[in-house]
Amino acid sequence: MEGNLEENPVARVTRKVTKAMTFALLFVVLFALFGYFVMRLWNWLMPAIFGLHVIGYWQAIGIMVLSKILFGGFHGRRGGHGGPRRWRRRWMEGWARMTPEEREKFRQSMRDRMGGRCGPFEVPAEPKA
């Protein structure tokens, strides 16, 4: 059955479950390892530099979670909600909706804002419909 294009549904589900379990295990191991490195780094630097107390493993995990909540949010690795591709697509759609006068006004505002620091403001090619 190696050349069979129609795969057994049980085998497909089994493969998906195995992949999910592998990912979950890898996540737990990497999270634990990262917590250990945070603890070691804290205990190496913070008492010597700032006179702070040494922390334990679970305190390091707590610091990681707290810093993620305060500074990182919970979006994915690809830049959050949709990533750079979505941002570019939305920008191009907005550009396509502008009239030529609005585009020129936008170009001028960018030139004024940048003050020539980034060179001339280049406009992307017209989006293909």
Topology:
Blueprint: H1 9-50, H2 57-72, H3 83-97, H4 100-114
Helix pairs in contact: 1-2
Quick synopsis:
With 129 residues, this protein is mainly alpha-helical. The protein is 68% helix and 0% strand.
Keywords:
129 residues; 4 helices
Structure description:
The longest helix has 42 residues, at 9-50. The chain has 129 residues and is mainly alpha-helical. The two termini are 44 Å apart. 2% of the residues are buried. The model has no long low-confidence stretch (mean pLDDT 82). α1 (9-50) crosses α2 (57-72). It has helices spanning 9-50, 57-72, 83-97, 100-114.
Amount of beta strand: under 5%
Distance between the termini: 44 Å
The number of helices is 4
Q: How many β-strand stretches?
A: 0
Strand count, sense and barrel status of the largest sheet are: none
Low-confidence stretches: none
Query: What Rg is obtained from the alpha carbons, in whole angstroms?
Result: 25 Å
Helix content: 55-70%
- Average residue pLDDT: 82
The chain-level structural class is mainly alpha
Shape: flat
Order of helices and strands: HHHH
